[in-house]
Amino acid sequence: MTDTGPPAADEATFLAAVRSGDAARFAVLTERHRRELQVHCYRMLANYEDAQDLTQETFLRAWHKRETFKGNAALRTWLYRIATNACLDFLDKRHDRTPVPSELLGSELPYLQPYPDGMLPEDPQESVVARETIELAFVVAVQHLPPRQRAVLVLRDVLGWPAPKAADALELTVASVTSALQRARVTLREQLPGRRLDWRSPRTHELSDDERRVLKSYMDAHERNDLDGLTALLRDDLRFAMLPDPGTVVVGARDAVDGWVSGGLFRRGKDDWRCVATTVNRMPAAALYLRTPGDPEYRLLNLAVLHVADGKIAELTGFDVTGQPWLGLPPAL
């Protein structure tokens, strides 16, 4: 993401499109950045549908502001600047996206949505999709930051921008950016669960053998109606949340299982399951399909996203995913 030296081929071509008013060429050159910009907006907003909307807003703003592109900065940098400020404008207007009170557990964000891995940028080495910074725990922790601290942290620590570049994008002083980053890092460390690895440390994008094994066992337990088998997969200090319903965060495997049982899990009407393995946010996930009496098909009901630690499920985040075709899951089996 360096901006030094003469304009590269993309920037020169883009600058020519800007000067000629070639909307079609403009669209082609900006479109190639859609996926990484959408991930950026998702980190800022924690909601896939909002990220889609703000990415489109970024392209609209870019077209309307095309005369401000002089070729001095990389096209990618220019687009990230627009996207960041579009997200900040959105957060300034949407009061339901303000930081969550610190006394609430990190997973309780009714607007949190999973991010389908199929929509991530294709380059596995791209820093914007590093697993540690797309997993739910990180995305949720970032939401505890005030919007501009959030922007600073993402630009500096995720994208790796130097302080002057981030300051220019946000129209802040370098001192303000440095101070905001220090405060953001402290808050982030407080919000991330203590057992998590350093979110900036390198790690593979692929699921581990433990993750694959636990996911398979989780799905098998559902399909067999095996409550004991399901319980055995959970850490005692399990953190469970069911979104978008507020007030559903439960800490402790016993309390979580008691809640599932009282809700009728594995009783008639909730005892005929089929599961499909998938990944979201570079995490193992199970799409849960339920067939109710009299229905010939299994209907998509929930998505269970697992964080596996020491061979057991440490965090289980459930999402109501009915009517969300962007996840790429069949609505029925």
UniProtKB/TrEMBL annotation:
Keywords of the record: DNA-binding, Nucleotidyltransferase, Sigma factor, Transcription, Transcription regulation, Transferase
One MF annotation (Gene Ontology) recorded for this entry: DNA-directed RNA polymerase activity
RNA polymerase sigma factor 70 region 4 type domain sequence ranges: 138-188
SUPFAM superfamilies membership: NTF2-like, Sigma2 domain of RNA polymerase sigma factors, Sigma3 and sigma4 domains of RNA polymerase sigma factors
Keyword S-adenosyl-L-methionine: no
InterPro entries, per database record: NTF2-like_dom_sf, RNA_pol_sigma-70-like, RNA_pol_sigma-70_dom, RNA_pol_sigma-G_actinobac, RNA_pol_sigma70_ECF_CS, RNA_pol_sigma70_r2, RNA_pol_sigma70_r4_t2, RNA_pol_sigma_r2
Domain RNA polymerase sigma-70 region intervals: 30-94
Superkingdom classification of source: Bacteria
Xref: Pfam families: Sigma70_r2, Sigma70_r4_2
PANTHER family named among the record's database cross-references: ECF RNA POLYMERASE SIGMA FACTOR SIGG (PTHR43133:SF65), RNA POLYMERASE ECF-TYPE SIGMA FACTO (PTHR43133)
Family the entry assigns: Belongs to the sigma-70 factor family. ECF subfamily.
Subunit composition and interactions: Interacts transiently with the RNA polymerase catalytic core formed by RpoA, RpoB, RpoC and RpoZ (2 alpha, 1 beta, 1 beta' and 1 omega subunit) to form the RNA polymerase holoenzyme that can initiate transcription.
NCBIfam families per record: PRK08241.1, sigma70-ECF, SigX5
Protein name: RNA polymerase sigma factor
Organism from which the protein derives: Amycolatopsis heterodermiae
